[in-house]
Amino acid sequence: MSGSLTIDYETIFRHAPVGMCISQHRIIHACNETLARMFGYQAEELIGKSFLVLYPTPDEFERTGARIVPIMNAKGHYSDERIMKRASRELFWCHVSGRSMVHNDPHAAGIWTFEDLSEKRPVTAELTPREREISALLVEGKTSKLIARQVGLSPRTVEMHRAKLMRKFSAATSSELVHRLLGVTH
Question: How far apart are CA 130 and CA 67, in angstroms?
Fold first, then answer.
């Protein structure tokens, strides 16, 4: 058939304009060049590595892994925006989406995409791991009570972290803090 296009999924995966990878038990089994470049690696360097290398700290890797399980079990997919780490140790905002390939075992096998948000939203303050986690949830529009429930802290502790974030970002209101976290300027 003239004019028909043969779809080669490997080529599509390799050249996709977003970072993509296939994982098993949070180990990268295949990734495209876009993902490798985004994080400052060669693709071969990431194959067989734990997602841990992409996180600012081991604690953030563990907490995120635990947080996504009930959501993926309920929906079969997960998406958020979080601060990740390049090979150079530079931190950057990243939109992460994933789909589990095994019902009720989200880490068994998954397909993940990563989009670098650093041009739209630079990381402008030194944040602790807990502040990074709470920042990501504030950006999603979650209340202190919801954040507290999701990360296993008291609402008061979440409010203390929010107050510290407001000082670090010179924000007078919670709305202003979210705008600063999103990189929105007035």
Answer: 13
178 neighbors 95 (Cβ within 8 angstroms): no
The string of pLDDT tens digits covering residues 56-72 is: 999 999 999 998 999 99
What residue type is assigned to position 41 of the chain? Y
Same domain, 27 and 75: yes
Q: How far apart are the first and last CA of the chain?
A: 55
Burial class (CB in 10 A: 0-12, 13-18, 19+), 81: buried
Strands annotated E in the chain: 19-24, 27-31, 77-85, 91-100, 110-116
pTM: 0.78
Closest CA to 106 of 66, 150, 145, 147: 66
What is the extent of the structural domain holding 141? Answer: 129-181
Q: pLDDT exceeding 90 applies to what percent of the chain?
A: 58
Give the mean pLDDT of 10-38: 95
